[in-house]
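Standup, Tuesday
Yesterday: got the pipeline producing structure tokens again.
Today: sanity-check two examples.
Blockers: none.

Example 1:
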Amino acid sequence: MTNHELIIGDSSKMPEIKDGSIQLVVTSPPYFNAPFDYKKLYKTYDSYLEMLSSVARELYRVVAEGRIVALNIDDMLVDGEKFPIVADATKIFLQTGFRYRDRIIWKKPDGYIRISRRSGVLLQNPYPMYFYPDNLLESILIFQKGKFDYKSIPEGIREKSKIDIKNFQKHNKDWYRTLWEMTNVLPNSDLEKGIAAFPENLPFRLITLYSYVGETVLDPFVGSGTTMKVARAQNRNSIGIEKNKDLVEVIKKKTGFDGQDKLFNNNDVFRIKIRSNKKVIINEQHNREDN
């Protein structure tokens, strides 16, 4: 049985989560004022970085010693200005106390461009200095809190979590490289309308590679619930935090807690907590008995 908790509120504070209780964080913060998805979400770039700093401090508190934070993030072009989000996010997490472990590049399929506005400038003005490349890449920054004690994992859990390398390689041929080629979620696909969701394969790889069965995975910007869905399928517990209350039904459906739970263990438990002022209200609980 696994437990899954959705918290409706701001992830800059996580009072519901105990110190050192999270074994893995997989998340993708909102893009900074992206023209298509988050325009004018933040008044200034400094306010965006301030939000990241607040979340990083809370993550350092709740993440267990030796464990991983995987941050899917990338630089952003807004109104002709490029913001160095990867560099600034790295600096923020290092200053918070995390160690910089790795950077993985997620490459989207060749030819995928939502709108080719950048490279198209050269077509209209075929002269030097008009070139701006289209971006098919995103970064997955891997941070670690301290050092991991491999002997701390019981032998039974180690064996249950053992990775079937041949099967994993079959579906993830580039898993051992710092360049992962994954098909992205298409805009306005089912359950993703208006949401910049990452593909299920991204949390699948990270959860498989950086956590053990029965551990807890946190996504402080859970969006449509992709991380929670994959965590459940991988026999991990999960916690998701999301500001938009309108996404509750989407998350319930994606994670299989919408009353039609056929793909997962029906003993799994799903709770929704909606913050009201400074109080936390338990709104719903779903498990086999409820269904």
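Example 2:
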Amino acid sequence: MEFRNLGASGLKVSAISYGNWLTHGSQVEEEAALACVRQALDEGITTFDTADVYANTRAETVLGKALQGERRESVEIFTKVYWPTGPGGPNDTGLSRKHVQESINGSLERLGTDHVDLYQAHRFDYETPLEETMVAFADIVHAGKAHYIGVSEWTAEEIRAGHALARELRIPFVSNQPQYNMLWRVIETEVVPTSQELGLSQIVWSPIAQGVLTGKYKPGEGLPEGSRATDEKGGADMISRYLRDEVLERVQRLQPIADEAGLSLAQLAVAWVLANDNVASAIIGASRPEQVTENVKAADVALDADVLAKIDDVLGDDIVERDPAQTKSPGKRPGS
């Protein structure tokens, strides 16, 4: 396993991190989820990402149980706050001081730890003053409940504003967690250059485009039974943007490139993400332990410029999303 610094900090994270967005507590039975975490540990993964909203807090509980007995100093645990949890009351969402403070306490209890290594704002909150949010995060860091802070899906402008406040408050703001893969490159023109300037890394989610870049979805064919695309609880709405024949046909044309490199399509996709030097870690999920083993192999792969160029030639410009405006958070909530 390769380890990379998270932003300009001294924190090392595994180049492949394990996330439980669509699995633990909802899509996968608990015993299978525990087996996947154990496999991740066996493969050298030390970095684990979750959020309070995943399965309405159940994912954090499952991850805490899975890591029970591990030396706490030997793993990095990340979680997030923003989306609704609990019964969904008016203060059960967002980045107000009330919600942030209550959420970190709930997350720590579910995870079975007294601190997380990285606490992340899961989206930008347009209803709460940014200073209120950052002061709440600073208090959490100063109380020892989190070592570092980060964000997820913030625009370059939002990252810059948050970073300026973090410097004033003397807290380490080290990362952004965006969606990023061969087909979704919206961070490249604005977010990545801003992050490089400010000393932040990307911890990317969906490196295999919810499974599309594995090649299992074929153009002109029905959806595989039991796949994520057929599971309304498992991200079917998000994967639908990729399930066009012109996209699936191009993905199939990546197979010879993967074959020549001695990789599966999934490994090629993860290695492609890790070729961006602003990416500290690529988050993988799994419903079976063998999926963890397969994807971890990408950590040791360095794709050369010729392979990257061939991938770009196959995909072209018409199916790849690059518009930075696609990085966005929800607007004001109804009734606000």
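Quick observation on example 2: The chain has one domain: 3-326. The longest strand covers residues 76-81.
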